[in-house]
Amino acid sequence: MILMATVHDPSGQLLSLCDGLGEKLQQLFSEVYLCVSDVTHQEVIHQLSNQFKRVKVIPKNGAADARRQVLSYALTTKQSPCNLMYCDFDRIITWLDTNPKELYQLVNHKEKMDYMIVGRTTKAFSTHPLSWQETERVTNFVASKFFDIENLDATAGAAILSDEVGKLINDKSIHTHTDCEWPKIVVDNGGRLSHIKVDGLSFDTVNVSNITSNDHYTERLKLSLNILAIFH
């Protein structure tokens, strides 16, 4: 399985966590592809470039653009068909630190799939700020109804997809947010969604950099509306 991840770290918060990360991830995944925003701290870019072969610096243009770019990067560079896992980079770091055995088991999951949404258990979800929990419940409730999957968690920033589905999404993804757009593309084109919940997608200090405003509730509600706009 290939890992695709995006990195946005202007403050250099990941500096103390990068050491040895390449070796750990490359023991789990056959290849690792990273797209790093051009405003990320230069030392973080340097450390990642030294540890991983596939690192691409891209203009800062939002999470959806970065996710599309890393998907395209992997599809156009990898050598053979295989499943692809997308996960926000700060999430992978937390997962490796808190529950590496669970991550290993998921990476070695052998069941054939089109698109598996990787969500959070109740335990993992409860570690997030209340502003995230209360607004993401709305997003996930609507997504659950649309996709007809009970207790779906579509907003955790992780998914596993087949090579064929990756190419389909790469051709069709245009929305401002991908959390619900990517699985909707799969369903609209006859693909099958599956869903798993994990403890490793918990919230820790490394994830705090994703909070960009003091008015968390307003910003998170706007985010929820933008994610769900794909269903309008």
Outline the biggest β-sheet: 7 strands, mixed
Oligomer description = single chain
What's the gyration radius in Å?
16 Å
> CATH fold name, please?
Spore Coat Polysaccharide Biosynthesis Protein SpsA, Chain A
The secondary-structure element order is EHEHEHEHHEHHEHHEH
Helical/strand content category = alpha/beta
Mean pLDDT: 93
Number of helices: 10
Strand order of the largest sheet: 3-2-1-4-6-5-7
Q: Flag low-confidence runs.
A: none
Question: What is the CATH-assigned architecture?
Answer: Alpha-Beta Complex
The level-1 CATH class: Alpha Beta
Fraction of residues in β-strands: 15-25%
Protein name: Glycosyltransferase 2-like domain-containing protein
Organism: Vagococcus teuberi
In short:
Helix content is 45%, strand content 16%.
Q: Would you give an account of this structure?
A:
By secondary structure, the chain is of the alpha/beta class. It has one domain (2-231): Spore Coat Polysaccharide Biosynthesis Protein SpsA, Chain A, CATH 3.90.550.10. It has helices spanning 21-28, 42-51, 63-77, 89-98, 100-107, 122-125, 130-147, 163-172, 181-188, 216-228, and strands spanning 2-7, 31-37, 54-58, 84-87, 115-120, 158-161, 193-198. Strands 3-2-1-4-6-5-7 form a seven-stranded mixed β-sheet, with helices on both faces. α4 packs across α5 (100-107). The termini are far apart. The mean pLDDT is 93.
